[in-house]
Amino acid sequence: MNGLERIEKVFRMEEVDRIPWVPFVGVHGGKLVGVDAEEYLKSADRVVDGISKAVELYQPDGIPVVFDLQIEAEILGCKLVWSKENPPAVVSHPLADGVELSSLSLPEKSDGRFPIVLEATRELREKYPDVALYGLITGPFTLALHLLGTEIFMKLFEDPDYVNELMDFCTQVGIKHSEMLLDAGCDVIAVVDPMTSQIDPMSFETFVSPYVSQIFDFVRAKKKYSSFFVCGHAQQNIEVMFDCRPDNISIDENIPLDYVKEIALKKGISFGGNLKLTSVLLLGNELDSKKEAVDCLDLGGTKGFILAPGCDLPMDTPIANLQAVSEQVHNEYARQVTREMEHVSSLEPLNLEGHWIEGKVVVDIITLDSASCAPCQYMVEAVRKAASEFAGNVEVNEHKIKDVDGIRMMMALGVQNVPTTCINGKAEFISQIPRKSEIVKAIKNVMG
User: Fold this and answer.
1) Distance spanning both ends of the chain, measured CA to CA
2) DSSP letter at 313?
């Protein structure tokens, strides 16, 4: 049984000989071939070389071609800021800047960086016929937020008709992009919609479910498979996500794997995740990675489960850590050895002595990295805008858990989910982007 066959059997909820492994190689592929993220994401040749190296090193059953949630947004007029170590970040929102929705057109396969992705897909399809290729599209709600900005959260209540119109447009973009990727040779369409973790189940059912379901239906009609990727503390929305009827739901470490497994098996839909991305794969060692892999493999089981990280791999994820995961996937004896090992993390919480500033309110935002994580980006933006009203009396700090000190700060503040905003040490906004007025009110309450 090859990787593609194994993935397809899991999507059909059939038993497999072993659990399949899908490393979400994004700009980490650039690291593997010695180029930065910008050069990597702007070259089909670089993408092919990076994914080829990942296939060689990590022996995956499936792998994404490109992991970049800004491709469609860029074509539709959003300005990007490029990074050496992360995918680009959206820094402008056309619809918030006065562009009319009616003036936007569905993109063509010759637009923007579509030709790069499609060419890389065709080459990888020919080179690796036995590996499941994942074509990633930006989920409609996340794309809508790119186009409109955080104003969308107010419009959910103030102008729902406009939001529905916008969601319909973003869905059509997603369907068209999906068709391009399938025609180029992808086996799986992954709808990556991280911003859906920021809304409640009722809003999800109203403004997301009817639209993503159209994409999953389209993929199913093409006799291919679909996956719904979400990151962040999205546990409240897991049931409604499954009700959208994708072939797979993929989650990150914020959501307990056993919780998702129970719902998945009940609903007859496969599930994937949820290797710890930063604290283990990026900042841990080989033993940490082995233990994490075995814990997930043992919990996931051989029916309907795909082992994967919670999101795209940070660029500098150590090769040895990912190879350690791959070894556990492919070698039962290696798993037995790992189960016998005991390992305790040596990290200790950060000492907060001197962190507080007399006469100021200190706001700490725990993020994955606002330069590469959309929910984190919009949380940081919202807090900084609110803080600007206090004439320098509010100190705003971002702590990225891609760094050891970021994790130590997370431990010191007792934070469990990202993004989370703490005001003077107390968690106020947990994995949900607040309105500016709510942040201002919370700061004023602390000031007295």
Assistant:
1) 65
2) P
